[in-house]
Amino acid sequence: MGFLDRFRSANSQAANAPPRSTIRSDGYDQSQPAPAGNEALRHDLLRVVLRDTLQAYGIPADWITAQQIPVGSRTRGPGIHWRLQLRHWDARLVVHIPALEEVLVERVNDVDIWAPSWLRGVSWQFILPPGSDCPPMPVDGNWSAESGATKPPSRSGSA
Question: What is the DSSP letter of 43?
């Protein structure tokens, strides 16, 4: 039995629950808590989704790693915060981080209908080795010049 089969089997018990008030178009209620006892499967799901997505887009696996941080809430119960770690600088990849995050979350939600109840958030951490080829900070006033705003006064007080 493969990973996804085990995961779907674990969630199939929850699918037999009585009807609820807020039902998704495919028949599942996301307002209810996810079935308990699937923490190890959820960690595996996040690991596999990251690995498969990076492979599908041709991104080297060592460029992005992840941490799965357990979080809790009195009202929502236990969950996971997914911290993605950028470990290699490539300007092409940095521009597409929001789209990559969207694809990752969408794939998690496609596999586990309960993911919105336990995946509490996604964040990015830049862990670049010293001497990475990332560009330096631009000169003072660069951001306001691009947006058309006026340049802020100089720190030295002279105009």
Answer: H
CA trace torsion 118, 122, 123, 126 (10° rounding): 110
pLDDT tens per residue, range 73-94: 888 888 999 999 999 999 999 9
For the entire predicted model, the pTM comes to 0.68
The CATH number of residue 75's host domain is 3.30.300
Q: Give the angle subtended at the CA of 84 by the CAs of 74 and 89, to the nearest 5°.
A: 155
Q: Count of domains in the chain?
A: 1
* Rounded CA separation 33/115 (Å): 10
53: pLDDT confidence band, cut at 50, 70 and 90? very high
**CA–CA separation, 100 vs 93, rounded Å?**
9
Question: Is residue 69 in a domain?
Answer: yes
Nearest CA to 32 among 122, 119, 116? 116
